[in-house]
Amino acid sequence: MVAVDVLTAAVRARDANEVRRVIADQPALAGERPAKGPSPLLMAAYVGDRQIADLLRAHTEPDLYEASALGEIPALAGALDRHPEQINSRSGDGWTPLHLAAFFGHAEAAELLLARGAALDALSVGVEANQPLHAALAGARNPAVVRALLAHGANVNAAGATGITPLHIAASRGDQAVIDILLEHGANRSATMDGGRTPADLAEEHGHAEQAARLRRDIS
Known about the structure:
Layout: H1 3-12, H2 16-25, H3 40-47, H4 50-57, H5 64-70, H6 73-82, H7 97-103, H8 107-115, H9 132-138, H10 143-151, H11 166-173, H12 176-184, H13 199-205, H14 209-217
């Protein structure tokens, strides 16, 4: 197994002792960015382990994607200053910086990226093929991030893979606050995914009967 893969596996397992051991032997691995798949630091963000992220941060400066995922504004601003052309580029596992900031609910990072020209309609690379608004709803669901994306012109009815819309995702989570935000911005309650499922159908499938009923009641 490649050394960076060993480190990434230790991060995925949230094994802080193994992470310490690996980077003690090869500190440079903390800053490795594989061409495919997440870097060790990005993986630390995915698993939500701040202790491990800090262990890695002691040996590397976050790149554009890692700073977006961690919500580290000085590092993000610095990365954008150094490489403004990368604003809409993809991480090794297929996400733009705005997708990552949105997914993790970092409103300040999202606003900074939007101010620098991040594309609202950029598609992730992978089976999801979704836009940053989809990512915001699939992840932390920070209403401030959702509102910021919509205020900057995100398509509230954009369809990702399988035809899923932002409202489908919010309904499947039973998140009434973000459902209401999407509806305020014109989300289509009648939108259907491949196979014909509506947002109300997804809400019901995931055990959110109240949201399902409200969505069905409001369809004119």
